[in-house]
What we know:
The complex is a heterodimer. By secondary structure, chain A is mostly helical. Chain A folds into 2 domains: about 1-30, no CATH class; about 30-260, Orthogonal Bundle (MetI-like fold), CATH 1.10.3720.10. Chain A contains 13 helices and no strands. The longest helix of chain A has about 35 residues, at about 45-75. By secondary structure, chain B is an alpha+beta fold. Chain B is built from 9 helices and 20 strands. Chain B has helices at about 40-50, 90-100, 105-120, 135-145, 165-180, 195-200, 215-220, 225-230, 320-325; strands at about 5-10, 15-25, 30-35, 55-60, 65, 75-80, 155, 185-190, 200-205, 210-215, 235-245, 245-250, 255, 265-270, 275-280, 285-295, 300-305, 310-315, 330-335, 340. In chain B, the strands form 4 sheets. Chain B has a 6-stranded mixed β-sheet with strand order 6-7-8-3-9-10, sandwiched between helices. In chain B, α5 (about 165-180) links the parallel β7 and β8. Chains A and B meet through α9 and α10 of A and β6, α2 and α4 of B.
Amino acid sequence: MRKLLIAIVWLYFGILLIGPLAYLCRQAMSDGVAAFWGEITRPEAVHGFKLTTEITVIVLVLNLIFGTVTALVLARQQFKGRTLLSGLIDLPFAVSPVIAGFMLVLLFGPETLLGMFFGALDIKVLFAMPAMVLATLFVTFPFVVRELTPVLQTLGKAGEESARTLGANEWQVFLKVTLPAVRWGLVYGATLTIARAIGEFGAVLVVSGNVLLLTQTATLHIYQSYVDFNYVGAYAVAMVLIVVSFAILTVLEVARVRATAGDS
Amino acid sequence: MKIEIRHLSKRFGTVEAVSDVSFAVEEGELLGLLGPSGSGKTTVLRIIAGLETPSTGDILIDSVRVNDLPAQRRNIGFVFQHYALFKHLTVFHNVAFGLKIKKWRRAEMAQRVSDLLRLMGLEALADRYPHQLSGGQRQRVAIARALAPKPSVLLLDEPFGAVDAKVRQELREWLIRLHDDLNVTSLFVTHDQEEAMEVSDRIIVFAKGHLEQVGSPADVYEEPATEFVARFIGSMNILEAKVTNGKAKVGSMEFPVSEFPDGQQVQVGFRPYYVKVSEDPARFRQQARLRHVYFLGVAYRLEIETDDGVILRSRMNKEEYRQCKFEVGQPVSYAITHFRILPQEGKPGAFLQPPQPPESGPFTP
């Protein structure tokens, strides 16, 4: 019975994870290392990696700042609408990324007030970097906040208060007490954000227009190569993303252990 | 430094946690704020520290009104109930925290920290992290950390609440010695009346946000100013009675209370050690039955049921008890040697002492 259960788990993992992964690696290398290298160094692919990296970095920085602020406010302040805000944090998990993308298209479309405003300023939002960042922000928004809020709540106020009585101002309290205490929670949230930002497809597809060498991220490039029957190209870029994901997974695991070990 | 609290009130929403409290802590004093949980004593402490803002009233430290000073500028040492040490810092750096914030020079800082660690008996633990310490050690680190920047006042919130009984006893004695050495004005909060008695120069008793009594431990114990204090501090037999012909009667017990008008309802209170019990039925005039005997270590507590069905607690020291050869269930005689009429809401109490009878001859109140 026990062996059967273990076998079932292996099979499940095999079909869902290990098989596809192994197949992907084999296909990526099916025309040899040179072809693989050629595919991932094509200008389109390189541009895709670059764009994905840029979006990820911007989204990460914004999420770290606003996610931390949001978590601090939710965990430490009592105010009207707090429950509503905490409830809304999970919204991006419930809404399909494609819908998120459409909301942005509707919001910034040329006929809307916002669209006209930015149009008049000659700032391109839709089918350009700003919309792609916004779309990625929408889908990654919950990660830092959701990681940090409970950590801050468990941490309690006493440490921060004792720092205050010892003469620390608010900024010193945050830098010297709060931040060190929640640092692994923050790393965990950051890693999830990176993983999600790199892999985001639906929301970005809708708002980017998927313009070659302009708004085509790595995932969009994979999709495009696949549609164009360039399987090796699709597999090769996918494999690069997979390797990155594994690296992230490792960091994630370390961060999770540290975060739950209470930092000791 | 002297601390003064004037007409302090604090409301949380509709709840009045502290209402119109005024008191002063004298320079160098060790003052205990005593009260059951939820009585507002911790709120008062936090308001003094600047961690809460009062709804009304003033806080003066060394005659300067500090209401508008944020916590970090009040120069107050605060010791939290659950230590609140910085987990990511070693003992040394925990203690040095306040000095770093105040930009002490490195050499002076190291000197100050190692002086304090020596004073606290923690010098061997300087490089440990908080999670590697015992509860008592953590508490001492917390106190060292609070003392490091030379605060004008030390505030301690339930300082011994989170350690076991034996360590608590050691820490109490240690705190008294520390206070004698440093002489820093200190205010500590506790719900443990024994602790308050043992440690404080003076005690302030709180109940439901009100200040009930201020006085030396002996005053508070011997002459409770309110019914609450009488019930809260120490053990007391309390009987309800109605005054008739200048006497408060409870069954066959009669207490002379000529100051009170006939018909008034009073509460008669007496400590267990004012209830004398003898196995000799002829020794005292009142009769009862021994229900239980509790061994308290230094003494015995006896629970007797009078012939009128009233349960009284008596306390006897070991020698007395051993001479008596009690058996549970046996008939005993008893007498009450002192009593007082407890103050009622808003009225002062009366301390009444019946003619001293005691050891010789039976006495009946």
